[in-house]
Structures are given as structure tokens and as C-alpha cells.
Amino acid sequence: MLTALGALVVRRKYIVLATWAVVILAALPFFPRADEFLKPGGFSNESFPSVKARQVLQERLELTTLTVDFVFSHPDWSPFDPRFSGAVDNAVAGLIDYDEISYVVTQLDDPQRASSTSNTAHVSAGLKLELEESLDFLEIVTEHVDPGPLDLIITGGPALYRDISLASERDLRRGETVAFPIATLALLLVFGTLVAAILPAAVGGGGVLVGVAIVFFMSQGIDMSVFALNIVSLLGIGIGIDYSLFYTSRFQEELRKGKTVDDAVLGAHSHAGKAILFSAVTSLIGLLSLITFDVMMLRSVGIGAVAVISAALIAALTLMPAILAVLGERVNRFRIGPDWSRRGSFWEPLSKWVMKRPWLVLIPTSTVLILLAVPALSMRLGTVDATILPDSLESRQGFDVLREEFGFALQTIIPVAYTFGELGGDLDDASERTNPFSRENLDRAYDIGRELERLEGVSAVTSIVNLDPTFGPDQYELLYTHPESITDVAAARIVEESVRPGAILFLVHSDLHPFWPETRQLVADIRALIPPDGELHVSGGASEITDIINTLYGKFPYIVAAVLIITYLSLMLLFRSVILPLKAVALNVLSILASYGALVFVFQQGHFSGVLNFEAMGVIEATLPILLFAIIFGLSMDYEIFLLSRVAEAYDRTGDNEASVAEGLQRSGLIITGAASILIVVAGSFVLADVVVVKAIGLGLAIAVFVDVTLVRALVAPAIMRIAGPWNWWLPGWLDRILPEVKRVD
Amino acid sequence: MSTKRLHFGLLSLIVVLAIAACVKTAEPREIPSGASPDPTATPAPITLPQDELAHDSRLEWWYHSGHLESESGRQFGFHFVLFKADDGFGEPNYVAQLGILDVETGEHYDLSRAEAGTRQVGGGAMTLGIADWVYGLLPIDGSHSFAADNGDIGLSLDMEATTPVMLHNEIGWLPTEAGATYYYSWPRQEAVGQLTIDGETINVSGTSWFDHQWGDFFVLGKPAGWQWFALQFDDGGSLMITEARGIDGKIADTYGTYMSSEGEVRALTQVEDGIELATIGEWTSPTTGATYPSGWSLAIESLSMDLIITPEVNDQEVRGGLPAASTYWEGESWVGGRQNGEPIAGNAYVELSGFVDPEPIEWMRRR
Q1: Cα-to-chain-centroid distance, residue A561
Q2: To 5 degrees, how large is the angle CA A150–CA A151–CA A152?
Q3: Domain spans, chain B
Q4: Do A271 and A150 share a domain, yes or no?
Q5: Percentage with pLDDT > 90 across chain B
Q6: CB-closest option in A467, A475, A528 to B27
Q7: pTM recorded for the entire structure
Q8: Is residue B25 pLDDT above 70, yes or no?
């Protein structure tokens, strides 16, 4: 079928080229608009208990968690200086009149919002909007608020949302700007001729263009994360170039054998085309696994990646043969670099050297790989906050001030809503059953409040029944006979904000960092509590992180197992061997673990944070290991298939294990090195990204590919193949009979 | 190492990673009912001057009120108070208020400042910055100072106690229905300083009264509240009387402390000492609409006292810096009457709390 497709493309090459020209021209206008419908974040899911709890908080307690945060400061005036507070009053005057704003709270309403050490005040405006709707309104608010003599930084959800979108897009453009020229340069080095070098870049670029256009259209119907664009760009360029490179080099090899142009294309199509097809299928298996996650970010990255790999595959199997059929010998025009095919590569002597002393190579290199992977054992999973943004952005600067001056994001606050009684319709319900100040409800709330205080990791609980540890239900009943008469500012605020008919809010404070696993344990402990009547709803960032990680890593082991098994079986089908696929799968896992180790070493522990210009978060963003697993598994499987297909081709011809390993390495080594170098450059260019998550994906990928192509592919793989000897090609007879036949060589 | 073992090792590693990522789930459990509060601590004896300083308590205040006279004989009343309230997380919020009465013109001024967190601004034992105001305590019994102004109006005073300390309820500790409070006074302090009225600064001196209260207790607004009287008699004697109303608005307790001119302190209770307090007039604030008692008769049987207390000026309401429920009347007054049949007179300061209707809670107002 593949051969038939090749023949068809060769026969109808101009139609194929014209079709592609139309497709690329049609996709072109959508490229700059790619992010129009993409959403930032996307780590959460509406079915999460934490998200439902957030809705309960909004509906039952009128709590809005989305705020525009203003950080006012003055070099000399304290926040309670009448000149300072007067300027703040002027700046925010009239904000409350907007329908979109539910409250405005200043340092005069809540003195803890003032820092006299830095003459800073934190003012918040609560929004009645969803995050997506808040961007336009942010512009209105920004224009409305005139700080007068004060300095002003605006941060909060909408500003961070806007800046993450802008920074991600900027990262993408920067990545492309850097990656394309360097990748072309690397291609020039590999091919030595200008035409051959431009081809993969052109075909890879075409694939990315089409992939991005697909993302543009899909994002209008399905919620997709802006991170999808980064992955499409990164993966599309890398894989597109891989496929084209492999295809073009095989075409050149076929030409060198003296074949006609059409036969050379067909030869490349049947050998390289099949390897590319299998490689793409394997990559798609890995990436399709992302679509099964109930997390928008992973799902949309999966969809984007599947789109771009499919586009790259179709481009490699149709556009590439059509172009080569037209170009013919002209593919070798404009030589400006060395002709590696005539020089012989270091891969053959290297593989022979390795195979002479396989144990001596295997033991130390395996040890090095395992050592690289060791930091992964201390991996702490968490999620992102504003620190993923560069500190040059205003929203990040505001976040930093709030963190340093007011302890934002350093301590954890877990909002727990206790709901009881059925509301008649809305919050106007005034039945005794839903009266939060009735003795019965105060008793129950008191029991909950005291129990929450006793949980490990809790530093304080604030609620209407946790005002003072020496107060019991009798005193609270007395206090709430006339709740409006409480003169204590802090207590009065709690009564105003954290109680409604049928609902009482507990804020569980912990000195544990919101990202720490111990905090997730605390969330689990709170969720395990069964109140005497009614329900507890655990909300907040720590709770959402708990849900995200539970969702991701509840499924992850099964997905890993499924991907490994499917990959193993498809490779067994391709190579008709039991051992080779096992080796392939194991080595890929090793590459991934090494990249996990590097991620922990760099992004969690903060090594090289100065050089790479980021702030260590102490955790690894929870989706990263899964993303990297999917991408790296697909990519390193490319190299494995490229290598093994050449080894198997030689083994089929010679029946000599050692010689075929040497030949396979010699014939595919240069291509693998070239493809990997390009990918390392492309992925590595994302280290320049402003958004730390994008930076981490780039570095993780670059390290994994580097390890894969040096230690794994060049040293460990030949050593194992030498040790395994004839067992490499062993397939039990019964298995041979039941396995469908897929010819290795056409 | 065999390849199989290597494979097994690698697969184990990834499984361990995946498991380590998950948090162990907690077993569901019912919340037990009948939780009890922490026991209230046994009151500690008041130790001075250490107890002059700030305490780790929910609520605390240092309160000065007094009578000043300029070198030209112009009369003023003043009160300065620094409130410290826990923000619920062990951090203090401060509010300072200054009230000045120009007796000659009847004009009453009140200013306020707020501060979050303790900001030490000087070298004294406790010298706090409350925005641009300063309040200071020295490690000497009954030695205080403050400086508060807003440019046109201001007062800075240094005060030294001239009597022994007055511990209320004998040990300086009072249980209430909304928590317990430590409470002592320096009933007479000599005050010297500068007062600014309409931008003009003049030297003043006089006598002030100092109260210090702290504890884990709540102050409740209307219908709860109190009437508080600090009387400084011309014979050198001093009297504090408090009539406290409970959350039901009824009088919960009337008590007091008397210090004779010789410095002898005697705790007074309504039952044992026959305290009779009655209102003889009213005044309605045009600003808040609250109606306050205005003029009182006070009889204390055990002291053979029959007194009339009269406000110098009606409008001495203090509104700045606190929620509406905390608005109170704090006024320069004078006292006259008889003790043991002999005429007796002096200066008085009166505080009336819990007379202003609190603002309804927003969500309750909607119901």
C-alpha cells in the first residue's frame, strides 16, 4: 500500500505539489491568528471536587475568587498616612459602581493589607466575571484607576492571564526565529548541499503551518490551552525535519546506487517511508494518550501534537516524494559542505569498538544513565503560579510584592464551605434550619472548626466559631445574638464575609507551601471529614492541585503501561523479535527518566537558575512529566526505528548480528545525529522562553534527546545487541505463526 | 547485570515515581460532636511596669483622658486612646484616636490614625508608630507620652503618675460575658505638653487619667455597652464607676474602684456598696442620630457620696477610625455633690458606649 502510494505520488507529482501549495496557502492566513481562541492555563476540570467546591463558594457564600489587585506604594508615606489613604480613595473611587465589580477592599477596610515597612498597600477589586471575560474589563479598570502621587502596579488573575498569553506567544515567535535558521544550518552540515538542506526545513515548516491551522480551527470548537501552540511548534519542527531528513537521505542513497529518479523515490518510500510511518504511529500512540486525560492543557497539547504529527507524516509521504521526483539529481546541487556519504562515519568504528567490549561499555553507561535519573526519585509535583512569568512583566512584579510583603502564595489557605439545610431558592432564605447563628448550627460548626484545628499541618482556622480558643458554643450563641454589634474589626469582617444562610466558611491556614505534597495530604485529611449534618466542600488552590495530580497520576501508570505494551507489540510486529522491542522500550524509558532527573535537578532544585534565568519553584509542574513522557517516547522511538530498521535490513541480507548492527549504525547514525542535533537546537531554543514551563519542556526534551542519541543509541544499544547476540532476532515459532506478516523490506 | 534485571529495575523506577506522586488517601471519619473550648487561663497577678507594655491578647487599649490648661488659663479636655486588636492571625492592628474639647468655644475635635503591625519607632520600652502619630511607654510605672496631630489640630503630652496604681476588682482582672479582661488605672497623672488648635501651638499642663485593659474578650455594640466615669476629686480622691449592659441591653453589672487621697484602694460593687446610677438628661447626636444619656446622679452608700455629673459640652461624640458599632461618646465633664455631708467637686471624664445603632451586615440587610 505504501509502495502504491509512492507510485501514485510520483505519477501525479504536479497535482500533489499543487494540492499542497493550495493547502499551505489556505493555512497561511491562520498562522498569525493561531492563539486567538486558545486559553491560558487549562490545568483544571469542572468535574473536580475542588472546582465544584469553588462553585459552592460562589453560589452559597457569594465569594468571588477572581480579583484585580492593585499594589500602591510611596517612597515616604506610610499606607495609613492620610495623604496615602486619600490618594488610594481617589484612585479607586467609583470602581464599586461598575456592575462587574462585587467589592473593593482597601488597607483601611483591612489593615493587614498595608505594609508600613515598604509603604505599600494592597487593594483588591472582586470581579463578578469569568477569567476569560475579564481581559477587556481589565483595560477599563486600568484606565479608571489614577494613582496620583502613588506608584501603582496592577496584578491579579486577569493581568496574569493576559501576561501568560502574551509571554507564551512571544516565546513561540522567539523559538521559531532562533530555531529555523539554526536548524537549516544543521541540515546544511548533514547534507552538504543547499537544496537538500532546505527541503526538510520546507517540508517540516509546511507540516507546522498546517498543524497550527488545524489547532486554530479546533480551538474554536474545543477548549484548548495556549501551551498547545508551543508544543505544536516544537514538535512539528522537530519531527517534520526528522521525517524529511530520513526520507531525503534515503533518496540520495538510492540515487547513489544508480537508480532512476522515480525508482529512487520509490525505494526511499518503501524503506524510509515505512520507518517514518511506524515511527509516526508510535509517536501518535504516545501522544494520543494525552487526549484521554480530563485536563484541558494535556488534552489540547495531545490534540495539537496529533494534528502536527499527522500533518508531518502526510507531508513526508506525499509532499516529499513529489518534490524529490521533480528535483531528481538537482537535490545534490549547490554543495557547500562535506559529503559525509563518501567520508564514512565514526558510527561504524564506534559500534565495532563497543561490541568488542559490551559489558565494559554497558555497565558504566547504564550507571551514568541511572545516576542521571536518580534526582527524579525526589521529584515533588506541584503546579504553577505567577513565578512561571519573567519578573520583567508588571503582573509578576505585583505578585512578587504581594508575596514578599503580604505572604501571598507562601502560606496555604484552604477554604472549606460547610453547607446545611435546603435553601428555599436563594440567599434570602431565612428558615431556622438554614440560620447560621442558630444554636444547633453553631454547635455543629463549632465541632467542625475544632476538628479542623486539630489536623496535622493546620496553623489556624478562621471562621465565626474559631474567633477565640477559649470560647465555646455558649459564648458564640451570645456573640451572635446581635452579630452586627460585634465591634472587633477582624471578627466583624468574618461575620460579613464568611457566613450566609445555609453556609459557613472555614479558612484553614497552614504554614505548608501550597505546592507541597504535605499540603495535598492536608486536603485529603479535610475531605475525609464527615460533618454531623450537611456537607463540607474543600476549595482553593491546594485543593485544585490535589485534584489535578490525583487525576493525572491516578491514570498515568496505566497509560505508561498501555503505551509500553502497544509500542512493544508494534515493534515486535515490525522486527519479528521478542528481545529487540523490549530493549527499545527499556532504553526509551531510560532516556525519559534521565530527562526527569535533569528537570528535578534544574527546575525543582534550582541548579543553573541564574544561567537559565528562572526562579526555582521547588516542584515540577505536574503535567510536565506526562508531557515529556509522551513527546520523548515518541521521538526516541523515531530514532530507535530508524536505527533498527537499518539493522534489520542488513540482518535480513547477511544473517550476521554484529555486522548488521555495525552497518545499521553506520547507515542511520549520521541521520539520527543530524535529526537529534536539530531537535536539540529547536527544543533548546525554548530555554530562552519567558514562561518557565515552556523553558522546562524545551530543556527536558533537549536533554532527553541528547542522552538518547549519545549514551543510549551510540553506546548502550549496540552493547546490548552484542550481548543478546542471536537472541536479538528470536521469535518463538508459535508467535511467528500467529503474528501478521509485515515485510521489513519491500 | 542481565538485561532483564535492567528492564525490571527501570520499570520499577517509573512505577515508584508514579506512586510517589500520589498522596495517600485518608479514611473517611465522622466529626465527633460536643467539642469543648480551651480552659480560660487563671488570671496572673499584674506586674508593673512590665504589664504597661503590649500583651499577646485579642484586644488591648491604653487610654488617657484629662483636663488641660494653657499658660493663659484656657481650659481644654482631651482623650487619647490606642486600641490594639488581633487580626485573627496573631498580628495586631492599631487604631489611635484623639479627642480635644475647647471648653471656651465648646468646639470638639476628633482625629484618628490606623496601623497594621507593630512598628517600633523610638528607643523607649514601647514606642509605636501609628501612621504619623507616636505613642510611647517608658519602663517606669505610669510614665507615658504621645504625639498626635493632623497639622491644624494636635496634642503632644508627657504624663507621669502621681498616685499608686488602681487595680480594679481588687486584682485587676474582670470576667465578662464576652471574655475576661485585665484592667488597671493610674487615676492621676501630671500631664505637660503642647496643644495645637487651628494651627496655633500653645503650652498646656494638667491632670489626666490612664486606663489599661487587655485580654481575650469582645466588645459588643448596642444593645450591649457601658457607661464609664472617671472622677478626680479636688480633695485628691479618685473614683471609677462602670455600669455594663449585657447583650440583652439590660444592666449586667455596676462596679467601681475608689482611691482615697491617701492612696488607699477599695473595690466597689453594686450590691455591697449600694451604687445607684441614674440618668438625668439626654442628648441626641445630629451626626449619628444616637441618643446618649447626658447628666447623671451617682450615689454610693458605702462612701456616703451623692454626686451629680454634668457634661461640659453635649457634642463630644467620637466617630473616627472605627466601625459604626464602636462609635462612642467620650466627654469632659464636671462633678459636684457631697460626701459625708461635706461638699465635694472635681473633674470628670465620661465614656458612653453602645448607644449608636450598628450598621446592618450587608447580606442580612438584603434578607
Answers
A1: 21
A2: 115
A3: 47-218, 220-358
A4: no
A5: 62
A6: A528
A7: 0.78
A8: no
